[in-house]
Design brief:
mainly alpha, about 80% helix
Length: about 425
């Protein structure tokens, strides 16, 4: 069997193992090791299995992942983000579906301090869903809006997905962060539009909030948002001004969250312990999948599969639209059976060389991947964010009702994807401006 045949067989075996529900990290690592053995022999296979995980885990930029995660968990545990939803509610409750829109705005701001979709959905779900249910909002709308809004944590910087993509694609993480700002705002606008349209057509979905709110109440509510605003300004102001790198930005954000939490009197040993444990667990889960993906990347590179596929693309002249639509279909199908991180790390070793050979900006492609990952977070039957919200609401809301509700937001995501594909400048404008 030639190296190329071994590589293609490896891809097929990984897909079969994933369909059999073997953990993706195990699937990628096991297939890579066996592939190395067939192509290079046992000694080389053991050598690569020893060297590659260490080389990858020792990558300095990766240290930003636990730092940004720690920042988000400290913000959540010390309730630094609690004032965001309250302020959004006070300012936006007059709109049709005002509390649902407040959840979207609150999630967008929390995303800028968390970097994790799951953390964002969990945090906003515990705050927003009970209040919407108390105000007689439709249960399906109440749960689905938070599940969808949480996906912005994958797109709005600091995004863990974008950090990992930047490492694998070897592109600037700062430029990826800049590129995610406009698509993130468009996503927020799209979700808001969905709520406005649905609640204007059917007011029973979201009864008007009867509450007398003065201008003083509005401005007092804004004062409660200062912890997150200060954190965002400190981290991203320094990052985009070139004062520090993304890795240093993560450490700065984590340190600031500790200082702000301590200043507000919400930081204690128990809170710190829980945040550190959650950070360690999430980091370990991300790293073990990333190591498996890195082994798989080396395996495919040695087999020659990426070069062969790139040559086929060039020979047949596959155009921009065909490549993008094909990628979207692959992500949507995989989103039905895999978690978003697994989808990205499984497909990048194959897709990156193809898009690079086609002359497509890898910054733009990174944001496309991130947006597709967002859709996967709420795509049935897996829909990780949907299960997070289901865990919060318990038996009060059937999961079928949540999945039915998120379909409206998937339509909005498709519109945003269409804009990104039709007008790449939406993604590339800010990164090119920052050059």
């Amino acid at each position: 069997m030639s190296f190329l045949q071994t590589g293609l067989t490896g891809i097929a075996v990984v897909i079969i193992l994933v369909l059999l529900r073997v953990p993706i990290a195990v699937s990628l690592g096991l297939v890579s090791f066996v592939g190395f053995w067939f192509m290079l022999g046992g000694t080389a296979a053991w050598g690569l299995l020893t060297a590659v995980p260490y080389d990858f885990a020792a990558h300095w930029t990766l240290s930003s992942i636990p730092m940004f995660l720690l920042m988000g968990y400290i913000c959540y545990q010390t309730e630094l983000t609690k004032g965001i939803f309250k302020a959004a509610r006070v300012w936006l409750s007059f709109l049709p579906g005002g509390l649902a829109i407040s959840s979207i705005v609150g999630a967008a701001l929390f995303s800028a301090a968390a970097g994790s979709s799951v953390a964002c959905a969990a945090a906003m779900g515990r705050i927003a869903v009970p209040e919407m249910l108390q105000r007689k909002y439709d249960p399906g709308l109440s749960a689905s809006v938070v599940a969808a809004a949480g996906t912005m944590g994958s797109l709005i910087p600091p995004s863990i997905i974008l950090i990992l993509y930047g490492i694998f694609a070897e592109v600037s993480i700062s430029k990826l962060f800049l590129g995610g700002i406009i698509p993130g705002l468009l996503t927020m606008l799209g979700y808001t539009t969905v709520i406005l349209i649905r609640c204007s057509i059917d007011p029973k979905l979201a009864p008007p909030v009867v509450e007398e709110i003065t201008n003083r109440d509005r401005f007092m509510a804004l004062t409660e948002t200062w912890p997150v605003i200060l954190l965002i300004m400190g981290v991203f102001g320094g990052l985009f001004a070139g004062i520090f790198t993304p890795t240093e930005a993560g450490a700065t954000g984590a340190a600031m969250s500790f200082v702000i939490g301590g200043f507000r009197g919400n930081l204690n040993w128990n809170v710190t312990r829980i945040a550190l444990i959650d950070t360690a667990k999430t980091t370990a889960a991300i790293f073990i999948i990333a190591v498996g993906a890195n082994l798989f990347t080396r395996f495919l590179a040695i087999s020659g599969v990426p070069s062969a596929m790139s040559a086929v693309v060039i020979e047949f002249g596959a155009n921009y639209v065909v490549l993008v639509l094909g990628t979207a279909v692959v992500f949507i199908l995989l989103g039905m059976i895999l978690d978003p991180l697994g989808i990205m790390l499984l497909t990048l070793p194959i897709l990156l060389p193809i898009f690079d050979a086609a002359g497509i900006s890898l910054i733009w492609f990174g944001l496309l991947v991130c947006k597709l990952v967002e859709v996967a977070l709420i795509t049935p039957p897996v829909g990780l964010n949907v299960f997070v919200i289901k865990g919060i609401v318990g038996d009060a809301i059937p999961i079928s009702l949540i999945f039915k509700g998120v379909l409206w937001f998937i339509v909005s995501d498709i519109v945003v994807l269409g804009l990104m594909i039709g007008f790449p400048e939406i993604v590339l404008f800010l990164p090119e401006l920052g050059q």
